Amino acid sequence: MRGLLFVSDGMEAAWGAEMDAAAPNLRRFVSVSDESGPDPSEIEVLYFSGDVFPERSREFAIAALKAENLRWMHTFSAGVDDAFFGTLLDRGVRLTTSSGAQAEPIAQTVFLYLLGLTRDLPGWLEDQRGRRWNPRAIRDLQGLHLGVLGMGSIGEAVARLGLAHGMRVTGLRRSPRGDEPCETLAMEALPELLSEVDALVVAVPLTDQTRSLMDAAAFARLKPGALFVNVARGEVVDEDALIKAMTEGRLAGAGLDVFREEPLPENSPLWTLPNVIITPHSSGTTPGNEVRASRIFLENLGAYERGDALRNEVFAKETR
Prior knowledge:
The structure is a single chain. Strand 6, helix 6 and strand 7 form a beta-alpha-beta unit. Helix content is 34%, strand content 18%. The chain contains ten helices and 13 strands. It has two domains: 4-101 and 287-319, NAD(P)-binding Rossmann-like Domain (Rossmann fold, 3-Layer(aba) Sandwich), CATH 3.40.50.720; 103-278, 3-Layer(aba) Sandwich (Rossmann fold), CATH 3.40.50. A seven-stranded parallel β-sheet has the order 8-7-6-9-10-11-12, with helices on both faces. The chain is elongated, with a radius of gyration of 22 Å. It is an alpha/beta fold. Helix 1 packs parallel to helix 10 and helix 4 (103-118) crosses helix 6.
């Protein structure tokens, strides 16, 4: 007998008919908060949907870890650098993500940072609070050279918006495919690119290879007066080196959504730097994300039932 598809009550209410159509022969267990679950050994597929995060995350994580016959789990998130995901992969569980669901909202927030920093939005807001009429020149965005470190779905969305704003855009990824929306080089070109770009957006996944990728040496290579944006993971950046580069005036500004420690400690110098825009790891948090993530899951559910390739499948070596 087939196993169970483990889903939330919210997912069932919103997408029950679509799950019936995608996998008519796969029985479902609908998890309701505070109610007991099925025999874990019966769970074959589990969807860790956004409606259970963070309040019911533990419930779904425990179900996945106890499900000895779990064959596939889909997560609403894009990043899978947590040890929980590595444990599942090591057990041979197939893992897929909702990469791409948040790409456009995150890219739009990136341009909130870039537009805000080139126009001194922090300064204007400070003047407004002080009721000061303080005209000054702002910086053009068009014509600037934008570097995008990481050309996944988020990086590609950032690149497209950069081109739309009249910027010259160069992307970096581990293995360029040739179909990216902009000139894209291999990661080995990073040292040379750093000295050329007017703005750098970091959008790589966190792996052993990308941890502290932006270290003191990298910030020293960045073009003086460059803008820096991080929407990847806090651990990709040496935060002390970033703070030093900012306080010494080598960077013109930074837009930061992720940090080494979250929430960002109250004593972090980043809070008080006048040319830093901080958002609380929410650059892509919009109501449409859950819908987009669930549509990716439903697409994969149909593919799983047909035995086809799964979209956004993650392999163990990609998380190391």
